[in-house]
Amino acid sequence: MSEQIQIPEPATTRKAWKETDVGSVFVSNYPPYSFWRDENTARIKAMLHTSDPADKDIPLGLYMHIPFCRKRCKFCYFRVYTGRNSSEIQTYLDALGKEVETYSTLPRIAGRKLHFIYFGGGTPSYISVKHLRALVARVKTAMPWDDAEEVAFECEPGTLSQSKVEAIREIGVTRLSLGLENLNDDILRENGRAHVSKEIYAVMPWVKAQQFPQVNVDLIAGMVGETRETWRDTVQRTIDLDADSVTIYQMELPFNTTYSQAIRGGNGVPVADWETKREWHNYAIEQFAAAGYETSSAYTLTKKGRPNKFIYRDALWRSADLIGTGVASFSHAGGMHFQNQTHWDPYLKAAGQGQLPINRSFVPTEEERLVREMILQLKLGRIETAYFQNKFGVDILKRFGETYRELRDAEMLSFDSQSITLSRQGLLRVDQLLPEFYHKKYRNSRYT
Fold first, then answer.
1. What CATH number does the domain containing 195 carry?
2. What is the rounded distance in angstroms from the CA atom of residue 173 to the CA atom of residue 297?
3. Taking the CB of the first residue and of the last residue of the chain, which one, N or C, has fewer CB atoms within 10 A?
4. At what angle do helices 129-142 and 162-170 cross, to 10 degrees?
């Protein structure tokens, strides 16, 4: 682990990254994951076996990791499996269901209402309708969610049929997210995507017919093979799809992707530099704005007059409790972070036996909790100083005044006594600004 920590990544390093080098950029937590250890497992389990009356005021969510895909994208860094047969999928879903049942009996969780549910992956839409319905029936018996504010579900277009879309709606999904990434078939194939654009166009009528309360589509700016012309075409085609929200990521290359391994092996991969990706991202924001969309975060635009909530994101960025189930999943409860076993066999063994499949964890200090919420909420584009004063008893403009003044002088944000607002250029590079707020021991380290 110490050797890994010496490898800096953009997500922890205070410098202006120009080329798309290997390393995580997207900041999803703080402190960095490389500092998580297995030494706190007993403390995590003790917390979960202890009830706390204060939990009634903390939203609770359930994440279910469905790690199956038709193909592994060349830029993918998640724990996914391809080529698993129906029997193997059933074995995994049995373990997942058992894990949810185990959590439902723990004093920290038992009796609490689920505010949000997230089916992530991998590709949740990969599994069959039969498997999906059986999983949901088992999980809802243990942890009902009929009154949840949001049930989100990720899809890869090529895995959907009309009957599967109908089944996804029937299980109560309120936010369907389609991983389009691009609408140019050559770019999709080069980057290892399993679908092509005709599958996107086949799916959209089925999705609209089911009248999901919210439909999101994902794009990635700067995929290998992208040009200014192809990106502009993808943006226009996505506008024409008329989704309720659009999430745009800038291409990054974490360490364990196919592309990253090729680069580290000495083979060049033509990924656009950060300036180009920001330019393309900015172009997309301008075009979507002209089409009636408004900015919801550094990544998401929502159509005016349409549902624009993303409960999962907003709750996590405000330290809601989340039970992450499935291989390699992340959880947060009682102010503590923990991750499941990251490989197939250890996860199945522990979860299947009704044990908590915890692999590593981190117990943050109050200062680290403050920094985590502040930097994640900055990705929304605007934060209120009163929120942090009320929750942590801290005036963030005094505590981090020097950093905020430096970012203001660089035209990345503006602030007054009530709020901090990122500029457009600040939003476009927000993940590369956040290390400015890190404690020095977490800078220039391995992020993941």
1. 3.80.30.20
2. 22
3. N
4. 10
